[in-house]
Write a structure and sequence with these properties.
About 40% of the residues lie in helices and about 15% in strands. It is α/β, with parallel strands linked by helices and about 250 residues long. The termini are far apart. Bound molecules: 3-methylbut-3-enyl trihydrogen diphosphate (IPE) (2 copies) and magnesium ion (MG).
């Protein structure tokens, strides 16, 4: 997709879903490396194909009327990977932001990011900030990129902010509630995810949205992320609609 050719999304003809979509979908986009290895390709090719999958899933979520899509793109633990892979990932992020901006604008999608963004390579950070600014007045779906994100780091940052309020005398320790923590989370602007999808079969959270996933429905598929398409998303949503959410009730 070039910046000259924005795509205006129309509702897809028939996704076979008549029920309202989950308001907030979160995705752990995992398995790019294995997808590439299975094909004898370099890991970075897996990440490139993963970026294409993100575009298709974003379009489908938008067309379905999902309000918020949060995707795990890079964890604080992913710095442990070889420097070349890390640098390729941030290069790809910049390419993705440049190529997707017209589509984000044409479809009223607001880009946001969560994580310790100040630790990003400067050029990736500036591309990210620029795309966030360009889409800031969009009122449709929020696409939230979790980059240099960790659930524990988010809680650490939120608790630090609460401690500052106490130190400044604007919050008394005896008045502290979970709402005070909640309004200091990176995700304070969105409801908790209704559905979490993880690709590539791993049954773990890998430090993603630890607070917010308390009552989220979990969906794990063995497919690697680059193979996850529109039909897979629709199947995950159908499965979500078969769940009985009780939130501790009966
Ligand atoms: C997910 O795919 C992308 C990132 C974590 C950046 P992986 O790179 O983790 O792929 P696998 O898990 O090694 O197959
Ligand atoms: C989780 O995947 C992080 C992202 C998808 C960005 P990982 O591949 O880093 O997770 P682990 O290491 O298998 O738990
Ligand atoms: Mg992985």
């Amino acid at each position: 997709m070039t910046p000259e050719s924005p795509q205006l999304l129309n509702p897809p003809p028939d996704l076979g879903i008549n029920l309202p979509p989950p308001r907030h979908i979160a995705i752990i986009m995992d398995g790019n490396g294995r997808w590439a290895a299975q094909r004898g390709l370099p890991r970075v090719t897996g990440h490139e194909n993963g970026a294409q999958a993100l575009r298709a899933v974003t379009e489908t979520c938008c067309a379905l009327g999902v309000q918020c899509l949060t995707v795990y793109a890079f964890s604080t633990e992913n710095w442990k990977r070889p420097a070349e892979e890390v640098s390729a990932l941030f290069g790809l992020l910049e390419l993705f932001l440049a190529s997707e901006l017209p589509t984000l604008l044409a479809n009223n999608i607001r880009l946001r990011a969560i994580g310790r963004l100040h630790e990003l390579p400067p050029s990736a950070l500036s591309a990210l900030e620029s795309t966030i600014a360009h889409t800031a007045t969009n009122t449709g779906m929020s696409l939230v990129l979790a980059i240099n994100y960790s659930g524990r780091a988010e809680l650490e940052d939120a608790v630090r902010s609460v401690c500052k309020e106490v130190a400044q005398g604007t919050l008394r320790p005896e008045d502290f509630t979970q709402e005070d923590l909640q309004r200091n989370l990176y995700t304070r602007d969105w409801p908790d995810p209704d559905l979490l999808i993880r690709t590539s079969g791993e049954m773990r959270l890998s430090n993603f949205l630890l607070w917010q996933l308390s009552y989220t429905e979990l969906y794990v598929t063995p497919k690697c992320w680059p193979d996850f398409g529109k039909e897979d998303l629709v199947e995950a949503i159908r499965d979500f609609h078969r769940r009985k959410r009780r939130f501790g009730g009966i």
